[in-house]
Every structure is written in structure tokens, then in C-alpha cells.
Write a structure and sequence with these properties.
The structure is a homodimer of 214-residue chains. Chain A has 214 residues and is an alpha/beta fold. Chain A has one domain (4-84, 100-212): 3-Layer(aba) Sandwich (Dihydrofolate Reductase, subunit A), CATH 3.40.430. Helices cover 20% and strands 27% of the residues of chain A. Chain A is built from 6 helices and 11 strands. In chain A, the strands form 2 sheets. In chain A, strands 5-6-4-3-7-1-8-11-10 form a 9-stranded mixed beta sheet.
Chain lengths: 214, 214
């Protein structure tokens, strides 16, 4: 059975996975890039940008697992773009540029479906108004036996965790206090009891917490 | 100048430093002992209980610093006992037994002062209705040039952090999701900017985050 995985999902010490005030210029709102600076340093991230260089230590090793064996992604609408409500037009195809880093089918959860968009490099965005279970069914079918990644944002990850659909999760706890935004952990009391949990700190100051279904 | 220190202060991944429903039998409410199991394993904790044995690894080394050079503690009333409002009597002298592990003057913050209580082993509880600044002034005077520990609970630590009175803090992030209780981090946005922050995970799964005033 293909697994459902979450990777490189950053939260602050106070549990926020994104700041307040998402906009076209600030996908993470007032958090800016503070949750992801550690990630930008890695060779894996640099390669996603078509660049060379970057760190190749333990942090990069952890980050690098994000796309191994992944056949489809599910993301919330806010990871696609900052629009709310009905789409005003279909001209803008998300934050991810003409050649998004996913290279698989991507299912964008939205109450406002629109036609699928095929991008360069193998990414196709499908817009679906569906429960987590139904979205996962579609993503699994598209993944051809490979794993499905839940890409975020926080409310999407939280929904899949609440429905006990996640088999592996990597959370990067960044030692900052964001104060406001959207929390990952709400409503997930005793989540740890469903997983084998490991914590490893890296010199960036980030702690990588992995949750693996036993 | 003597420093103000916080030690062995455990929080969950979702930032709760205590659970919901404190009572005489459950000082940490529904959290039970889940925030402190890692701590109980250490030789330092065992010694506090008058026992021998316990771990002597990195975790114990971190824990052990809690009383070095400490001349007084300040704690919130809820770390003394579960009573709320006016004291019904003065017969019960807190959760800490006849010989509390502090062995210094301890200033208990409360809106309901009562006479000081001298315990065995050098601990004297003083009950003060004071601002953080005034309580610290009294504790510093009692500490005779040594450091002052802010012992908790979360609202007390938070008040001292908000007033920028803390010089060193050790927080143990325990990889559990408590879901409810009292949060440490509320109202402390960008706390990290005032400190040098380090994170170290130990095999217990706990991540020790230290905040040191530069």
C-alpha cells in the first residue's frame, strides 16, 4: 500500500506553521522566510531552484527524502495562491512558476473547482472540492502505486492527521516564537500515541521531529 | 550582577507547560507526568528524592545545572498548591513535602499573602503580592548575590519573559501534543531576538532549547 507522507513542514516553537496576513508577496504572512531559512541552505532546496551548491549534511539528507517515491501531492488552496472565494480569473497559475518543483499530479483542495492546469516538468494542478478521504483516493489513483505527499498548509495537514490518514510526517521545529498565524497542532491531542516519534537537532538550531506509523 | 534563570521547564510540541484541570492529586492536570518522564530518569532528579541511581548522560548534565549558584526562587502560587482565592487555612504547606528541594528562600506570588513558612533543609516560603520587578528585587536581596530562579508555572515564566527580566532559560520540548492547558509562549512574539538560542535533542526524544542573553 502506498504511504501518505508529510515532509519539511516547519513550525515555530509556539506551533505556528504560517504567520498572519498571507498575500501575493508574503506567502507566509508576517513570518516572512523565518520558518524556512534552514531549508534554503540545503543543496536539495538549491537544486529545486535550478542552482548548485548548498549544504550536504544531515539537514540536507533529511530534506532530500521529500520527493523519493512520491507519485502525487495534495495541497490546500493557500499553498497554491493567496486568493480566497471564487476565482476572479484563471490567468495566474500559482506561486510555483512555470516549472513547479512537484513534477507529479498535484491536487489542490478548494471549494471552487476550476479546470486542471498542466505546467512544465510534469506538474499538473487539479482543483478538487473533496473530503480528505476522497482527495486521497484520487491522488492514490494518480500516483500509480507510489506514495502521496500532503504538502500543506497547516489546515490541510491537520485535517489529514485528524482523519488518521498520515503514515509519515517530518516536522521541523524552528526555535522562533511567531506569536500569531495558523497553528499545526490544534485538535490533535495525543497525536504522538499513533506514531513512533524521533527528534534530532541540527546545527541550524532546527529540531527535526519524525512521526512514523509503527 | 546576579542572573535570573529558568531551568528544566517542560513544554509540549503545542507549547503547553501544564495540562488542564490542576488538582491536589494532579499538579499538571490531564498532562499527568507526561511532560516530566524524561526528567524523572536523571540522577539529579533521583537525588532530589533522596534516592540513588538514574542516568548520568547529557540529559542529567543539563538538568543538574538547575541549582548551581541559585540563592532564591520565585514561583507562581500554582506551583505551591492547587488552591485558588483566599487561603481556607494555613495547615497545608504545599506539594513539596517537609523538606522541599529548593533549600533557599522561595517567593510565592499570590494576591493573598500569608505568613512565611520555614521548612526543613533551608527552604522558607514567603508569600508576596508583587509585580515581577518587585518580587525580583526581594528575591535578589534574599539571594545574597547569587542567581534567582524563576520556577514556574507558565504564567509566571511568561510574565518574567514579557518584562525582559530573564537572562537564561532552559526549555525542554517534549514530543507530545497536549491539546489543552496553559501555554508558555503566548504574547512572546520574537522572543528569540533577545537571546542566543541553542537546541540539542537527547535520546529521550526531548529537545533542550537554551536561551541565553548575549
Amino acid at each position: 500500500m502506498s504511504r501518505v507522507r508529510v515532509h519539511n513542514f516547519a513550525v515555530s516553537l509556539d506551533g505556528f506553521a504560517t504567520g498572519e496576513g498571507q498575500s501575493l508577496d508574503e506567502p507566509f504572512g508576517h513570518a516572512g522566510e523565518r520558518l524556512h531559512e534552514w531549508f534554503f541552505e540545503t543543496r536539495t532546496f538549491q537544486a529545486m531552484q535550478g542552482k548548485t551548491g548548498g549544504s550536504t549534511g544531515v539537514e540536507d539528507a533529511i530534506v532530500r527524502t521529500w520527493d523519493t517515491g512520491i507519485g502525487a501531492e495534495i495541497m490546500g488552496r493557500n499553498k497554491f495562491g493567496p486568493q480566497r472565494g471564487p476565482w476572479e480569473n484563471h490567468d495566474w497559475n500559482g506561486w510555483w512558476g512555470p516549472n513547479p518543483p512537484f513534477h507529479t499530479p498535484v491536487f489542490v483542495l478548494t471549494h471552487h473547482p476550476r479546470p486542471s492546469v498542466e505546467m512544465e516538468g510534469g506538474t499538473t494542478f487539479h482543483f478538487v472540492d473533496a473530503t480528505p478521504e476522497e482527495a486521497l483516493r484520487q491522488a492514490r489513483e494518480a500516483a500509480g502505486g507510489l506514495d502521496v505527499r500532503i504538502g500543506g498548509g497547516p489546515s490541510t495537514v491537520r485535517q489529514f492527521l485528524a482523519a488518521d490518514l498520515v503514515d509519515h510526517m517530518h516536522v521541523a521545529v524552528v526555535p522562533i516564537v511567531l506569536g500569531r498565524g495558523e497553528r499545526l497542532w490544534d485538535g490533535l491531542e495525543e497525536l504522538e500515541k499513533r506514531f513512533r516519534v524521533e527528534s534530532v537537532s541540527t546545527p541550524s538550531g532546527v529540531t527535526h521531529v519524525t512521526f512514523t506509523r509503527p
